[in-house]
Amino acid sequence: MKKYFLLLAGICLMQSAAATLDVRAFGAKGDGKSLDTEAIQAAIDSASACGGETVVLASGRYLSGTIVLKDNVLLRIERGAVLLGSTRLDNYPEHVSSYLSHVNRYSTRSLILADGAKNIGICGEGIIDGQGSLANYPATETETLMGITRRPYLLRIISCTGVKMKDIRLRNSPAWTQHYLNCENVLVDGIDVYNHGNYNNDGIDIDNCRQVRIVNCHFNTDDDAICFKTTNATGRCENVVVSNCVIAANCNAMKWGSETNGGFRNFAITNCVFRRADEPTIYDRPNRTLGGLAIETVDGALVENFNISNISMYGVMTPLFIRLANRARNYYDGGPAQPVGTLRDIHIANLTATMHGLVSGSITGLDGHEVENVTLSNVTIVCDGGGSAEYAQNRNLPAREKEYPETLIFTDAPASALFVKNARGLRMENVRLEVRHADPRALLFIENADDAALDNITLVNPQDAPQLILRNSRNIRIGDLLPDALQIEGTASQNIGIGNAVAAFTDGATKKALRK
Predict the structure, then answer these.
(1) Buried b vs exposed e over 351-384: b needs ≥16 C-beta within 10 Å?
(2) Per residue in 450-501, pLDDT tens?
(3) CA gap 120, 124 in Å, rounded
(4) CB atoms within 10 A of CB 144
(5) Is 191 exposed, middle or buried (0-12, 13-18, 19+ CB in 10 A)?
């Protein structure tokens, strides 16, 4: 024991002089064949024990199983260095988080793990490659979550404070690329993520975390690129900034959900580009890039105070999916079902989107549980057009409140650009909705809305059909509208101010619906 402390003291003295520890000094081979897990872990343990310093992977290929980050340790992977995930599952011992979470039901393994640590980080211009292809980790869509219990995450950071990820390149995770759970003060800056080799390959998942910044990053994934979750009802994701990111995805570019047990509050999203990934999707579906912005609460979460601005999208099927529903899934076995949540105060400005597909954007709540105070300003959405005449006649779509919250639940909506139902306090100003090819569906269809104001709205469709339809809505004010015609439907329509527009009435609506 005395020799051990003398050795540790000697290492600390050397570390103080050099300020870094090279994993090769602890026996790492860096040849891509020898398993270097123990050597890398020994360097991390020594750095932490000495008060914390930088552990370096110099040029080489370091094969490893699970390594655990410790307090005050920065792992630097230099240009020319690759940390390779082992393809043997027994090199990833199971770790069940002490933080109760829905994810504990299926996620216990990762290449890099931290639990309860402080002041940790990964930096450098090197690569972390999980070698997570289907060939190495077979999975099928017929299995529950595509057999995710057999596939480790690349990074799993749990209950940590002071986390920094900078400039690193993350590749080929067998499952989610990064999962930050119940963390505080997280900075993700300048990283590059590419993950198309297997199922469930989200780019980054921020789960019940506070004070988070994701900036200057590039994501290219087959599943959701940036995903915010709350997998424990006692916590929140709050005080979050995302800026200056370029995002390519075959699913959702940016998503809140589907796990929504806790709350989401105080988000600022700005200066981002969303695009369709060039790679074909691994999933057996014809649709790609399902959503641009998908903002959801389906398991009881409070969602409020979002400011989203300066967003450009192209090749995205459904630019906006704002959804309040009632799946009510618990987050631990035997736990209570969750109540209906609240979704309010979402402000979206300076957004342009070119759609690829026929599924309308949507803002939808439930009867008695409306989405509240959504504002769209300076928004342009250009659609493909060519939709279904049958869908154009659809009315009173079912609530579908228990279905998985995805854009595809409203494939049959009677709108080509935006379908709104069960909303209060909607504001739309300087909005242009356009279809390239004639489409019998209305560009904008609003049903069961209360207290809405629409001003300077331009609707462009080669089809000679109503482009703005108000159904069973009340307390509506319409300013400038081009073309200056709309259709009002339903006996519950009332107190609608249409300015100089011309209204047609159907399905029980009459001129009595107009504001006096």
Answers:
(1) bbbbbbbbbbbbbbbbeebbbbbbbbbbbbbbbb
(2) 999 999 999 999 998 899 999 999 999 999 999 999 999 999 999 999 998 9
(3) 14
(4) 8
(5) buried
What pTM did the predictor assign?
0.95
Residue type, 118: K
Show the tokens assigned to 250: 């075959």
φ, ψ dihedrals at 135, nearest 5°: -65, -40
Q: Tell me the DSSP string of 390-449.
A: HHHT--S----TTS---GGGGTT-SEEEEEEEEEES-EEEEEEEEEEE--SSEEEEEEEE
Q: Computed over its alpha carbons, how large is the radius of gyration of the chain?
A: 25
Percent of the chain with pLDDT over 90: 90
Token pair 């994501």 is at which residue? 219
Q: What is the pLDDT of residues 317-346, one digit of tens each?
A: 999 999 999 999 999 999 988 899 999 999
Q: Domains of the chain, with CATH numbers?
A: 18-513 (2.160.20.10)
The answer to whether 488 touches 452, Cβ cutoff 8 Å, is: no
10 Å CB burial of residue 6 (0-12, 13-18, 19+) is exposed
The b/e string for 426-448 (b: 16+ C-beta within 10 A; e otherwise) is bbbbbbbbbbeeebbbbbbbbbb
Contacts of 208 (CB under 8 A, 6+ apart): 101, 181, 182, 229, 230, 231, 232, 235, 236, 237, 262
Of 222, 225, 224, the closest CA to residue 197 belongs to: 222
Q: Say how many C-beta atoms besides its own lie within 10 A of residue 516's C-beta.
A: 5
Q: Are residues 214 and 190 in contact, defined by beta-carbon separation less than 8 angstroms?
A: no
